[in-house]
Amino acid sequence: MVKYGLDYTRCRWILPLLLGIGVIFGIIALAGWGWLESQTLPYVLQASLWQICRRPDQGGEWNCESLMGYAWGRAAAATYLVGFLLLVICFALAIIAFAIDTLRFNFIRGIGGLLFVAAVFSIMGLVIYPVKFSSEVEMTGINMFSWAYGFGWTTAIMEICLGFFFCCLPNYEDQILGNVKPTYFYSSP
């Protein structure tokens, strides 16, 4: 990417594309039912970021309860949702930043800083949820934090990594814009 510069049409949109993938993963985490599930038979517990569902036995009816009745449930949902909204804002800003012909490198560094703030909020929600869930909600059997919770962590890790890319990209401004003379390692005999 640095070799060809950000004017190279295929490389220019890699970072906004990765942010878009992070947004999709965040949507999956917010809407997914697999934050916590029973691992073994009988499967009697299933939880999302928003509610928990239990059933008395394998063939019984699911009884659902909102986690928004707990202060920690509201805190976990709010902090993760703030992190997700900041990620969406960064995605929109990245599309604007890379769509204009002359890149504003300070603007790109600001997107990186905002991604770090989004990561902090996402991680706070992802830590509050399992700590308080396992201490305040009665669970039976063996349970595991599942696929949607994993998508939440993937989103947070992508926010951190992309934050580094967006913050470090302006350090290579001259190479990206082609303002550096090539260095040749050939010497005449």
Automatic annotation (TrEMBL):
Q: How does it sit in the membrane?
A: Multi-pass membrane protein
User: Its Gene Ontology biological processes?
Assistant: apoptotic process; cell-cell adhesion
Domain of life from the UniProt record: Eukaryota
For this protein, the record's Pfam families field holds: PMP22_Claudin
* Species of the source: Hypocryptadius cinnamomeus
In which compartments does the protein localize? Cell junction, Desmosome; Cell membrane; Cytoplasm
Work out whether the entry's keyword set contains rRNA-binding.
Answer: no
Give UniProt keywords alphabetically.
Apoptosis, Cell adhesion, Cell junction, Cell membrane, Cytoplasm, Membrane, Transmembrane, Transmembrane helix
Q: Where would you find the membrane-spanning parts of this chain?
A: 12-36, 77-100, 107-131, 151-172
**Where are the coiled-coil regions?**
none
UniProt record similarity statement:
Belongs to the TMEM47 family.
User: This chain belongs to which protein, by name?
Assistant: p53 apoptosis effector related to PMP-22
Taxon lineage: Eukaryota, Metazoa, Chordata, Craniata, Vertebrata
Statement: the UniProt record of this protein carries the keyword Protein biosynthesis = no
GO CC term, one of those recorded: desmosome
